[in-house]
Amino acid sequence: MEVSVKENEFVVLSISEVSSSSSTSFSKSEPVFARFGSGSGAPELRFGQESQSGADIVINLRGSQLFRLGPAESLFISEVFEDNKETGYSRGISIQFKNKEESRSFHCAFEQWKTEMVVQGPPLPNGAVSTSTSKFDEKIEASSAKMYFHYYGQLLHQQNMLQDFIRTGTYYAAVIENRADFLGRVVVDVGAGSGILSLFAAQAGAKHVYAIEASEMAEHAKKLIAGNPSLNERITVIKGKVEEVELPVKADILISEPMGTLLVNERMLESYVIARDRFLVPNGKMFPAVGRIHVAPFSDEYLYLEIANKAIFWQQQSYFGVDLTPLQRSAYEGYFSQPVVDAFDPRLLVAPAISHAINFTLIKEEDLYEIEIPLKFACSVSTRIHGLACWFDVLFNGSTVPRWLTTAPGAPTTHWYQLRCVLSQPLYVMPGQEITGNFRLVAHRAQSYTIYLTLSATVGDMLQTSSGKLDLKEPYYRMSQPQVYSSAQEPNQLLQTQDVLTQSWVEDGLVPVQQPSPNHGVELHTL
């Protein structure tokens, strides 16, 4: 029998309840219609039959999620309201389509109607104004979030990350070398971007991967995954924030690339931890599982003069007849408030590094709002200290092959480079002299951190102290390759115990997080 189908209407072979809390009463001899519309003033999906107009199942698309279980089978999870009933309940409905094309068309229609809901906004009872916001929205300025998701929604920025072969290759190795962790498991990719990590997980034999991405990159991820037919039936892309979306099952493994400059910039680590609390089964695995921030004092006259000289422009007393000097001090302070992002020669370090470990499997989200690292170094040379150098690494603690990804100076350069906090007032130190201080990171609503740095050293009876306040959100992207140093500048090579991760150290991935090698001179503070 040929069935007439209207616009925004689909004929499905069957629908069935996932739970037994309610049941359908549709006749098996008559086709079931799935109609998108807005009869209640909000985008909705209605299942029904022509002969049973009063027995329709109505799904408000707000908060609903659609998952592809197979080529012609999907699953709806939603708050459902039946006609003439004011209260609703969570319902899972399995939908069987005639073929793959019908399923694809249905999914496209669902996304279009969900988009319409976002543009128009959800209806509110009695004209009330909604005040409900997600945890992400409460913490982050709307303007910052808009720019953030716009940036990561562009393919050119995804390409920049994909072409970081150290980053991408390490993730690939960490997944493929630990197939036993992924085989037959449910995986959630947090902040999936292009979907590359989801595809890696599927290659390693994951039972199903839920790729969560809040930016427009989700649409590109769907295309990329659809273009890999041997894997796409085991990957579902979900557009939304991890703080807001719902999943039909718990995950055995979380995989993500939540690291920003200095590990914590962009505050995505918090979303990674929230995803752990919402979706991960007890004792589930996280790739990566641990991150470490490494810091060490450095000496770099070239960099210091480069920054200081930027403010010379404001020393002009007659710039087209205008005296610029009233702003000279503010400009000088402004340039030193920018952390420097570049690659530097590890010989610039003048003391062994201190490491601060963050265990993603245990840390509370709130503990990432403020991070404090006490500083205590023993200087190896006589020099001027110009600030604090920083880098990070993360551990993929696989059951078969633990593997590290490092951004250390001296290791192959990544798109994260390294970071240096330059002080406006250098410190003079002698060999063996103790340097103390504090390095504090305080999160702010622009998805980044304010850095408070203090370094102190005593020369004779004189205590030297230099402090700086820097905004991790506004770095100076210098990003030069490490400079070649003359022999007159090489006393710092006497530092043989600095915590620089060598290539073999990275490839082996066997250095324990809890007990760094003593000959690395690391003092470890753990959250």
Distance between the termini: 66 Å
The secondary structure category is alpha+beta
Q: Count up the helices.
A: 12
Largest sheet: 8 strands, antiparallel
GO biological process, one term: methylation
Main location: cytoplasm
Catalytic activity: L-arginyl-[protein] + 2 S-adenosyl-L-methionine = N(omega),N(omega)-dimethyl-L-arginyl-[protein] + 2 S-adenosyl-L-homocysteine + 2 H(+)
Protein name: type I protein arginine methyltransferase
Question: What labels would you give this structure?
Answer:
527 residues; alpha+beta; elongated; disordered N terminus; S-adenosyl-L-methionine; transferase; methyltransferase activity; CARM1-like_PH
Give a summary of the structure in a few sentences.
The protein has 527 residues and is of the alpha+beta class. Helix content is 22%, strand content 33%.
Written overview of the protein:
This protein is of the alpha+beta class. The protein is 22% helix and 33% strand. It contains twelve helices and 25 strands. The protein has helices spanning 100-120, 135-139, 142-152, 155-162, 165-176, 179-182, 196-203, 217-226, 268-279, 301-309, 328-336, 503-508; strands at residues 9-12, 14-17, 32-37, 44-48, 57-60, 65-70, 73-82, 89-96, 186-190, 208-213, 235-239, 251-256, 280-287, 290-298, 340-342, 354-359, 370-378, 383-396, 403-406, 418-429, 434-444, 448-459, 462-471, 476-477, 523-526. The strands form four sheets. Strands 1, 2, 3, 4, 5, 6, 7 and 8 form an eight-stranded antiparallel beta sheet that branches. Strands 14, 15, 16, 18, 19, 20, 24 and 25 form an eight-stranded mixed beta sheet that branches. Helix 5 runs parallel beside helix 7 (196-203). The longest helix has 21 residues, at 100-120. The protein is elongated and about 95 Å long. Pfam families: PH_PRMT_N (PF25350), PrmA (PF06325), PRMT_C (PF22528). Residues 292-445 form the Protein arginine N-methyltransferase domain. Residues 8-114 form the Probable histone-arginine methyltransferase CARM1-like N-terminal PH domain. Keywords: Chromatin regulator, Cytoplasm, Methyltransferase, Nucleus, S-adenosyl-L-methionine, Transcription, Transcription regulation, Transferase. It catalyses: L-arginyl-[protein] + 2 S-adenosyl-L-methionine = N(omega),N(omega)-dimethyl-L-arginyl-[protein] + 2 S-adenosyl-L-homocysteine + 2 H(+).
